[in-house]
Design a protein that fits this description.
The protein is mostly beta strands and 227 residues long. The radius of gyration is 23 Å and the shape is extended. The chain has 3 domains: 79 residues, Beta Barrel (Elongation Factor Tu (Ef-tu), domain 3), CATH 2.40.30; 64 residues, Double Stranded RNA Binding Domain (2-Layer Sandwich); 48 residues, no CATH class. Helices cover 11% and strands 39% of the residues. The strands form 3 sheets. The protein has a 6-stranded antiparallel beta barrel with strand order 1-2-11-10-7-12.
């Protein structure tokens, strides 16, 4: 624990790059508080994460560690991926991400949810939203569509006119139209940690988190590690 606290001192490192844990969203449920109130929570399997690479200012120009999460079978990885994590001696991983400001962590060290989080903490969680493919304006932007009667023909879910007369004579940039929707990196900020279950590597946060069930996420503390 002392090693993690020492690695948390990273005042000049951007918050989006500072030390956190890799995890997997397991789904949502509700939790009954001692007060009798029911709160919605997202269950995240956070860690354990293994330090598979260290970067130093002398060699790489900055201090950072690369964490691995979700052990994988070596025969399913490329030879380059197997060789990359060989020095750590902890096998191969499905997900690798880099964090700055944690140069005191040793190669092969393991970080668990108990090392970084406790009940009542505030965290930022980054995930990837569900991909919806090519979507129309009603699904993508919430357009109302056209009336279902009174002379409307074959135009119920269209976007309508997109321009004007001779001025501007073009379509403004950013016009809301049909297109690719979803599959975006989204960070949900200032979520409260309702409960940490270190025996099962679980963290329960209040509210929703971007991504599907089984999707990978990054959990970063707000406060001790990010300030």
């Amino acid at each position: 624990m002392a090693t993690v606290e020492g690695a948390a001192q990273a005042g000049n490192v951007p918050a989006r790059k500072r030390l956190g844990l890799l995890g997997k969203k397991l789904g949502m449920t509700q939790l009954l508080l001692p007060t009798g109130r029911s709160v919605p929570v997202t269950v995240i399997e956070a860690g354990p994460c293994v330090v598979v690479q260290r970067k130093s200012p002398e060699r790489d120009g900055y201090s950072a560690v690369q964490l691995g999460f979700a052990p994988s079978k070596p025969h399913r990885e490329t030879k380059a991926a197997v060789g990359h994590v060989a020095k750590a001696g902890k096998g191969t991983f499905s997900l690798l991400r880099e964090f700055q400001g944690a140069d005191q962590l040793e190669l092969g060290a393991t970080l668990t949810v108990a090392d970084l989080f406790k009940d009542g903490d505030v965290v930022n969680i980054t995930g990837t939203t569900k991909g919806r493919g090519y979507s129309g304006v009603i699904k993508r932007h919430g357009f109302a569509g056209f009336p279902g009667s009174h002379g409307t023909h074959e135009y119920f879910r269209h976007g309508g006119s997109i321009g004007n007369r001779s001025y501007p004579g073009r379509v403004f940039k950013g016009k809301r139209m049909a297109g690719r929707y979803g599959n975006d990196r989204v960070t949900t900020r200032n979520l409260s940690v309702v409960q940490v279950r270190s025996d099962k590597n679980l963290i329960l946060v209040r509210g929703a988190v971007a991504g599907p069930r089984g999707g990978f996420v990054i959990v970063r503390p707000v406060g001790g590690v990010e300030q």
